[in-house]
């Protein structure tokens, strides 16, 4: 199953493909407009460099994603939460010739290391008014071509790009469509940012199946009144999001089956799913199945999944992260002596056609994490798991990487960027857990000079400076100013003590 093949079969359909607020686009319009833009790419661009797309949930983003694939190019979606500095870094790494700007940022003051064209929503009127064209399938991305590059947080303070090929995407869809399938041709919630890999479920599966994507943007997420008013008319059958977004919704009494009477499948991925949340969903949406999904971006969207049963809610273990993709080979590499000799426990290692080739233009980092095994690509997840009754259960990380609200974050990325702030001498960043999951990030800071003024103003200054360097979801919610950072017996910062004493 491949998105371009399926959409081509619907290229004359008047059914609605996407809805965003008061705007709609049919499958026919989507196909024809993406053809024109793909033709522009082939005619005007000199290289096969990735196409950058800056925005949130604009309909135009999906058009450009398709156009990139049709012209044999990868796309890179950059959410509006990313600061301009990181956009510039991604443009430099990819050597992009073209960026589509659907946000409010003005890129006219950008200083790029190479020439780059900037297109805005205004240019779409010109594309739409252009003559009808048909792009030959020979220019489409091939099996080994990169479809998209997902830039994630890197431990050096620089973004690293996960390169996902067509082969990876097709393998994911074929392996997990049984968990994603809904009964009819209904609508699917499209809330997850395109810069987060879970959004690929909606683009590569639900849109390809002829479902209507019901787009929810960042502004709606912050206004429950507007969001719920919008959702009441959505008629969605499929919900895909992080547990955090779902938890934000379930606290409201009105969020229930009366609001979404057709909802039949809820897929939650990107972070730990708790039993409390599933119990609330079972009460509010008794007819909907809840699926828990897990997977590093390097293994294409999801690596394992399972439907959450009633029995799982009553067992002593936390909820499982599911069964690994059937096509995959995996093993658990033991880290320490297990407390139970009958249970495999350690780092999850996966070999699969879903494992990507590596990090974009970063061979050293790629070599450290990826390997070849029996003709397939393997990846060391650095996730600690244990296996019980063929189901995997998540235990934690072997490093300082966390997931917060669905976003994968390297804590060292935040620390390295905080240390670039003049008034900061040293810092340690720690995740604060509530109910088995990361609730927020806390930073512990030693100032370069003793501060005689307001500590509140100092903390606000640090946050404002950090916003220039990292996306907003990486800004610590809480900052604690200390005279020094405590050390453990190994001479390292004692993070456990920091959290215990200052949380």
Description:
A hairpin with a 2-residue loop joins strand 22 (401-404) and strand 23. The radius of gyration is 23 Å and the shape is globular. The model has no long low-confidence stretch (mean pLDDT 90). It is built from 16 helices and 26 strands. It has a 9-stranded mixed beta sheet, with helices on both faces. Strands 16, 17, 19, 20 and 21 form a 5-stranded antiparallel beta sheet that branches. A 4-stranded parallel beta sheet has the order 4-3-5-6. Helix content is 30%, strand content 29%. It is of the alpha/beta class and 503 residues long.
Concise summary:
By secondary structure, the protein is an alpha/beta fold. Helices cover about 30% and strands about 30% of the residues.
Looking at this protein, list some descriptive labels.
503 residues; alpha/beta; 9-stranded mixed sheet; 5-stranded antiparallel sheet; 16 helices; 30% helix
